[in-house]
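Lab notebook: predicted structure, single chain.

Context: the supervisor wants predicted structures on file for every construct in the current expression panel, including those that have not yet been purified. This is the next one on the list. No modifications to the sequence; it matches the entry in the shared construct table.
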Amino acid sequence: MSRWSDEIERLDPQVEYERIYFLLSACEFSWDIEKALEFALFRTYAVPSISGLLASTGEFRDRTRKRYDDTELLLSEISENGQDSDRGQASISRINDMHGRYRISNNDMLYVLSTFIVEPVRWLARFGKRPMTPAEREASFLYYRSLGTKMGIHSIPESYAAMDSFNRRYEASRFRYAASNQEIGSLTRDLLLSFYLPKGLVRVARPAVHALCDPPLRKAMGFADPPAWLEKLLIGGLRARAHLLRWLPGRRRPRLITERQRPTYPAGYRIMDLGTFK
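Prediction complete. Output recorded below exactly as produced.
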């Protein structure tokens, strides 16, 4: 047990869900939840109505890294500072202003929200040093239900189980191949690989991302199936990492995404400048 999980156990998920989510995402599972949220957004691009909108604006094609950074920063400003803090409210306002310029169905918005809730739970069950506890899962659900309400999303399910069921039904009915899926998915895949590899190695490493995608996701993205040995190697490596983490001391201090240096904003950023504009 870490000092962070000890604190989480003392908190009430029905009331202190924002503090619990901060401890989970910035302290207890900081790397894992960041990766899970990257794949959560990645999954949404397998829905043609979502990828089609992103492709039509040209923003993702022309400024892939900036679009990624802006999304990560806006969400992190909220989780690291609180939904009702000045910076949290400014970020929510910026998100709502962007979304308000387009005709986005409530169901698509709800699906994106659902991925933020269920994908970290699934990732940690497979690759984390431990799975989320029921209280942590409840707090994460309540955190995003509150955020979804502030974003104007309605008909949000009343429990994690109901949200998980909605997510699975939506993917089963809406995942299908489209050229826009492949375009946005390929741009995102290559960007994620570029965080770890020199540009010249990104192309040869693409099957590694495909190996972490389930078959319906690969089919909807138009991605080739990876070699079976590669899929087994990567999944085995992530599980070995999880086993090692159980024996290592926990993180000493929060890992804040908003404090990270990034080439998109070498001199820092202002919340009001993040995202897209008319």
